């Protein structure tokens, strides 16, 4: 009888091998590691159980009516009818396979003598263990209709999402039974894997239990967080972010505004971290966020933190609009933040503000002088010229926005940055958005908690209380929170610790749960479900002409249900900034004749951002059109298996050009397809003509080794080029 190894079966089912081994161990099978083997009959049963999908039924949620009592959520899931398992072939006396119903009572097999001749086949053991408990025997050879499930016979109370092992203890079932039920539902889980409330509700209905979710008591201050009366709202100060191209004078401009020299103390004159500063203008104040670039701005927005009210785009008058200027502009527009353009370095003889105004009109930024709605201010950070006009423009825009907050309530805000000081412990830079923070208040910031031991403003002065739009450094937290975390004042330390532990647990569960992001493959399903109304795209191309031709062609694909919107275009390879913008805006990245940088590929995989590469413009339009109509069915998926850097180029008589290369990532195989990248631009795509290690032919070369690579019918290879190896795998549509 033929057998199959566990790791091969796991690859076929697209599951981690260790997960499958642990699940089969719970079924009391003799499986020790992924190299263990099982019979093909057992493998067939495992395949059938795992691939069998059951649709989740909608959960009916009933909340408790009383407010003072901890709310109880009763989850009543409609019972899912049992599906009859297929008959398993059993060898007869004459060696022919005979179908035997799975629902045959296991007691008959147990009454037989313990003899190898009468041993129950392994397939029957697995199938019997996977059969749902409490099912009545089916007569007539297993062809009868399933009987309806019985009414719930018990109640399980939980407060949080629990693991498989914890639910088994609460329900009084064995871990093997719970894992078996989950396998019937098409969900592979291990004993330590967390289950969400939806899955627990369906699982409870499968084993005839009622699930009651008792939520922990929440502080009344947290419940009433958004119940600010209109008469309690007071005017607050605006929060401004300064962005722009490198060396265009962002930090120098901010230094000029707040009249303190921070540039000299920073490495290379470039801002190294996020800081928040408040500028006093007499009756008014403005809060400035000094960011290390628009990447940090978008990183906080990707975490859900709405911090900035106004964005100042700094453009050098003698340099004009640069690539990072366009990136910063698109990041601000994606966040729906009003933009003020500060034309810096107006004191230089080569300054040309008219050219900058003309360039920015191509990106939808039109000055008020030309009938637009964007304020342009000419400044010189070096000569301190135009600073008052810029601040007046900020206050004008803030007055139009009507920024208000309630100061007479518990404080809430956002963590701008955090670090650990050797002498002072965890220190967090906070921006209060509403309420008043006092020394001694119990606070929670993400998974960190504590009491406010001290508050220090940007000028080093200790504060006893701080109102809305006040940046400060807070001392007294248990750990350093993450930038973008929300902080809130609670009643006491006990509630603070409970909320912090809850946040840490939920964050850990969210990290284990696969991230659902928009992709072209399932975009139509999300539109049908009402989850998506816009298709946001980021286009990166090899030259400006290709990008300018592709953008209007893509935007013409709108239909009545979905609007196609290009939020950013650029020239060059896909970088980490593009991944962050796509994550924050829920966008798809289109790379035309370019590839992604190594760090960008890793970030896209981690953040589940859909990045697609094309070389023909019609393929881009066809894929987007098919996605809008729900007809996109990709046949092949491309996997990059390695990269090699060309160190030396040799010309060999009879063999052409050989690239002496070092494999820097993954591996290079002889049968893989390759691309030649120069500055992130695709120069050549084809096959490997020859692959050698020293003088010997090689089938593959791993990372860290040198090799000689000859491209098939292509000789234009230069030092510093990158050779990228890839394979195309067929995607099996369900």
Question: Can you describe this structure in just a few lines?
Answer:
With 734 residues, the protein is of the alpha+beta class.
Protein architecture, described:
This protein folds into 5 domains: 60-80 and 149-214, no CATH class; 237-402, Rossmann fold; 412-512, Translation factors (Elongation Factor Tu (Ef-tu), domain 3), CATH 2.40.30.10; 523-634, 3-Layer(aba) Sandwich (Rossmann fold), CATH 3.40.50; 638-730, Elongation Factor Tu (Ef-tu), domain 3 (Beta Barrel). The strands form 9 sheets. It has a 6-stranded mixed β-sheet with strand order 11-12-10-13-14-15, with helices on both faces. Helix 18 runs parallel beside helix 19. Helix content is 28%, strand content 30%. It is globular and about 85 Å long. It contains 20 helices and 37 strands. Mean pLDDT is 75; it is low at 53-150, 218-224 and 260-274. The protein is α+β, with helices and mostly antiparallel strands.
**What is the CA-atom radius of gyration, in angstroms?**
32 Å
Q: Please give the share of residues in helix.
A: 25-40%
Strand tally, please? 37
Distance separating the two termini: 30 Å
Tell me the major beta sheet.
6 strands, mixed
The CATH superfamily of the largest domain turns out to be: P-loop containing nucleotide triphosphate hydrolases
Query: How many independent structural domains?
Result: 5
Q: Look at the helices and sheets and give the structural class.
A: alpha+beta
User: Going across the major beta sheet, what is the strand order?
Assistant: 11-12-10-13-14-15
Number of DSSP helical runs: 20
CATH class of the largest domain: Alpha Beta
% residues in beta strands: 25-35%
Shape: globular
pLDDT under 50 segments (min length 5)?
53-150, 218-224, 260-274
Calculate the mean pLDDT score and round it.
75
């Amino acid at each position: 009888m033929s057998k199959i190894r566990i790791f091969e079966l796991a690859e076929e089912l697209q599951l981690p091998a260790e997960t499958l081994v642990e699940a089969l161990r719970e079924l009391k099978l003799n499986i020790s590691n992924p190299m263990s083997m099982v019979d093909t009959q057992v493998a067939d049963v495992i395949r059938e159980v795992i691939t069998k999908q059951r649709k989740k039924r909608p959960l009916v949620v009933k909340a408790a009516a009383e407010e003072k009592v901890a709310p109880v959520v009763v989850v009543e899931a409609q019972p899912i009818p049992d599906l009859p398992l297929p008959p398993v072939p059993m060898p007869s006396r004459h060696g022919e396979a005979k179908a035997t119903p799975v629902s045959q009572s296991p007691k008959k097999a147990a009454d037989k003598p313990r003899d190898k001749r009468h041993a129950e086949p392994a397939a029957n053991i697995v199938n019997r263990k996977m059969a749902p408990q409490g099912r009545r025997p089916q007569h007539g050879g297993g062809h009868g209709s399933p009987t309806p499930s019985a009414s719930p016979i018990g109640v399980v109370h939980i407060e949080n999402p629990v693991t498989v092992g914890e639910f088994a203890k609460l329900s009084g079932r064995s871990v093997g039974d719970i894992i078996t039920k989950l396998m019937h539902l098409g969900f592979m889980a291990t004993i330590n894997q967390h289950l969400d409330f939806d899955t627990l509700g369906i699982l409870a209905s499968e084993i005839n239990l009622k699930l009651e979710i008792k939520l922990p008591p929440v502080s009344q201050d947290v419940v009433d967080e958004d119940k600010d009366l209109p008469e309690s709202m007071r005017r607050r100060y605006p929060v401004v972010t300064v962005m722009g191209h490198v060396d265009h004078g962002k930090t120098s401009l901010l230094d000029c505004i707040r009249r303190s020299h921070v540039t000299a103390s920073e490495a290379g004159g470039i801002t190294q971290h996020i800081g928040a500063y408040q500028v006093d203008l007499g009756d008014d104040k403005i809060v400035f966020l000094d960011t290390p670039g628009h990447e940090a701005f978008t990183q906080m927005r990707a975490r859900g933190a709405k911090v900035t009210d106004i964005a100042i785009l700094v453009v050098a008058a003698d340099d004009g609009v640069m690539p990072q200027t366009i990136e910063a502009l698109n990041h601000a527009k994606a966040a729906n933040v009003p933009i003020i353009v500060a034309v810096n370095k107006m004191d230089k003889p080569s300054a040309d503000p008219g050219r900058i105004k003309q360039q920015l009109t191509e990106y939808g930024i039109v000055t008020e002088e030309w009938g637009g709605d964007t304020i342009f201010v000419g400044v010189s950070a070096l000569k301190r010229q135009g600073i008052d006009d810029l601040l007046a423009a900020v206050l004008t825009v803030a007055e139009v926005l009507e920024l208000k907050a309630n100061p007479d309530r518990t404080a809430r805000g956002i963590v701008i940055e955090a670090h650990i000081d050797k002498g002072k412990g965890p220190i967090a830079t906070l921006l209060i958005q509403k309420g008043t923070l006092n020394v001694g208040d119990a606070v929670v910031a993400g998974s960190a908690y504590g009491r406010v031991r001290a508050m220090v403003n940007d000028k080093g002065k200790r504060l006893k209380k701080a109102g809305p739009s006040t940046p400060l450094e807070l001392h007294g937290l248990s750990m350093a929170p993450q930038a973008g975390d929300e902080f809130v004042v609670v009643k006491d330390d006990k509630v603070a610790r409970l909320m912090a532990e809850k946040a840490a647990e939920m964050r850990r569960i969210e990290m284990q749960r696969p991230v659902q992001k928009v992709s072209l493959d399932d975009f139509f399903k999300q539109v049908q479900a009402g989850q998506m109304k816009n298709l946001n795209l980021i286009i990166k191309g090899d030259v400006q002409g290709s990008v300018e031709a592709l953008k209007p062609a893509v935007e013409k694909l709108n239909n009545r249900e979905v609007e196609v919107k290009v939020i950013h275009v650029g020239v060059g390879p896909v970088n980490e900034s593009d991944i962050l913008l796509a994550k924050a805006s829920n966008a798809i990245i289109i790379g035309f004749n370019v590839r992604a940088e190594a760090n960008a590929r890793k970030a896209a995989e981690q953040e589940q951002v859909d990045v697609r590469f094309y070389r023909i413009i019609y393929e881009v339009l066809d894929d987007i059109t098919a996605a809008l109509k729900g007809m996109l069915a990709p046949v092949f998926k491309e996997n990059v298996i390695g990269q090699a850097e060309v160190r030396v180029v040799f010309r060999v008589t009879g063999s052409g050009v050989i690239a002496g290369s070092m494999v820097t990532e993954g591996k290079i195989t002889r049968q893989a397809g390759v691309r030649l990248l120069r500055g992130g631009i695709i120069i050549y795509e084809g096959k490997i003509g020859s692959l050698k290690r020293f003088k010997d032919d090689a089938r593959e070369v791993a990372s860290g080794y040198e090799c000689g690579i000859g491209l098939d019918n292509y000789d234009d290879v230069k030092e510093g080029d990158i050779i990228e190896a890839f394979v195309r795998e067929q995607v099996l549509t369900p």
